[in-house]
Design goal:
Elements: H1 3-11, E1 16-20, H2 26-39, E2 44-48, H3 51-57, E3 60-61, H4 62-66, H5 76-83, H6 86-94, E4 97-101, H7 108-122, E5 132-136, H8 159-164, E6 167-171, H9 180-191, H10 196-203, E7 218-220, H11 223-236, E8 242-245, E9 247-250, H12 252-261, E10 267-270, E11 275-278, E12 292-299, E13 302-307, E14 312-314, E15 318-324, E16 327-337, E17 340-342, E18 345-347, H13 348-351, E19 359-363, H14 371-376, E20 385-390, H15 399-421, H16 427-434
Parallel strand pairs: 1-5, 1-6, 2-3, 2-4, 4-5, 7-18, 7-19, 19-20
Antiparallel strand pairs: 8-10, 9-16, 11-12, 11-17, 12-13, 13-14, 15-16
Helix pairs in contact: 1-2, 5-7, 9-10
């Protein structure tokens, strides 16, 4: 399916699962859909499963938008309490369309919670309270991970997805990579059919440093490796580092839970010139989780960060909290820290959704299906790749997804054919049917 046809189907009001290979232009289609929907006075809730993806669209995380936060489950008492939160209720009730980007990284349980919140607050038994829902992502990319770092079920396995029954729009054209050899490698990984020829192509980029005035970003599978590089780069900068210590209050076990779930380090060391990434959503202050920039000053004890968009932000401490489920005003545990971390090197998880002209990628620590595919597909061409390590699992993808992908492609082809045959005046009835569970 072309981007244009997918956009037409989405604008017709259908609930849609928008998918396609990395670099097929899914984010572009979403941006066009958002722009055209707004011209029709539709209120679009723009969300994503991760802060970085939300930044790309100018939205917020689905966890923040829906109010589920870091919760693992919702009881009836939670839903009733959430319905009394005026800002949350207003946000959800005023929306016409809900977009969730990077759906592959949202667990089934989390999608179910979002569905429950929407139905409760909108007082509707329809899936997601009757919102038009657009789910976007590629399940060949990184899977969801639970709070205890264990694999979680994919979103498509949830009852919320089954009830929604979204139409599948599978974009087949590739826009990011035009390098024929590189495209061949990525397609082979995606289909689970990597041969010695594709391995030889990748081997040609092993330990091939890239000549550039700017250091290419470095991608690693594990935080520890990225942290080691970042600390080394910080040491190379002139001057003394300014240290920021995390403040912690409340129940010790809950504080530990917050620390594990929060990307801010307990001790943050910064210098002017440090490359940094924001780890908290604060649209009002001009940043989202995943916004990158450089420390240009330390003003009255707070760092000043220049973002890629040209904004200078004085970064003050942010709080992460766990509240009592029976009394939202009661804080059981809280941590506070400058919402930054060093970013010369980043994890592959954090790179998802990025497009890079060049990168140094180390896959020797790859440990999950799709990790190598995500990292390699960030780069636009072979000439921009310096592969510094690789292991056996790095080129593997989930066998279940290979089978489902074939099914989704067929569903998309059938949808495109049937959509072309639907008279324009009949689209209204089609739209109404798209938000009602089909039995």
């Amino acid at each position: 399916m072309t981007q244009k046809k997918a956009l037409e189907i989405m604008l017709a009001g259908n609930n849609v699962f928008l998918t396609g290979a990395a670099g097929s232009g899914k984010t572009y289609v979403l941006k066009e859909f958002i722009k055209k929907s707004k011209t029709k006075d539709k209120k679009v809730a723009i969300t994503a499963s991760t802060g970085i993806a939300a930044t790309h669209l100018g939205g917020m995380t689905i966890h923040s938008w829906s109010g589920i936060g870091v919760k693992n489950s919702l009881e009836e008492i939670n839903l009733k309490s959430m319905a009394t939160r005026l800002k949350l209720a207003s946000r959800i009730c005023s929306a016409d369309i809900l977009i969730i980007d990077e759906i592959s990284m949202l667990a089934a349980q989390q999608l179910a919670m979002v569905d429950s919140v929407c139905r409760t607050i909108r007082e509707s038994a329809l899936p997601f309270g009757g919102l038009q829902v657009v789910l976007c992502g590629d399940f060949f990319q990184l899977p969801p991970v639970s709070r205890d770092n264990q694999p979680a079920e994919f979103a498509f396995k949830s009852e919320a997805w089954r009830n929604l029954m979204p139409d599948v729009c599978y974009i087949t054209y590739q826009y990011r990579q035009q390098d024929a050899d590189y495209l061949r490698v990525l397609k082979a990984i995606r289909s689970g059919e990597v041969t010695q020829e594709e391995i030889n192509i990748l081997a040609s980029r092993l330990n091939r440093p890239i000549t550039s005035k700017v250091k290419p970003p470095r991608l690693f599978a594990h935080n520890a490796r990225a942290d080691a590089i970042n600390n080394f780069e910080l040491e190379l900068l002139a001057g003394e580092a300014k240290s920021y210590q995390m403040a912690e209050t409340g129940n010790a076990d809950l504080v530990e839970q917050l620390i594990r779930g929060c990307l801010a380090p307990q001790v943050l060391n910064l210098k002017v010139g440090a490359k940094v990434m924001f780890v908290k959503n604060n649209p009002g202050s001009g940043y989202m989780n995943g916004t990158v920039g450089e420390v240009v000053d330390i003003d009255e004890d707070y760092p000043v960060v220049l973002t890629k968009s040209g904004d200078e932000i004085i970064v003050q401490p942010e709080s992460w909290e766990i509240r009592d489920v029976r009394d939202e005003n009661k804080i059981l545990a809280s941590i506070s820290q400058i919402p930054l971390r060093l970013a010369w090197a980043i994890t592959i998880h954090k790179s998802q959704g990025m497009s890079l002209d060049m990168a140094e990628i180390n896959l020797s620590g790859a440990f999950a299906y799709g990790m190598g595919y995500v990292a390699l597909s960030r780069v636009r061409s072979l000439s921009g790749l310096n592969l510094t390590g690789i292991n056996e699992i790095a080129l593997q993808v989930d066998p279940e997804i290979i089978e489902l992908d074939r099914y989704w492609q067929k569903m998309s082809q059938n949808l495109e054919s049937s959509f072309l045959r639907v008279p324009p005046l009949a689209m209204l009835n089609l739209n109404r049917g798209s938000i009602v569970p089909r039995r």
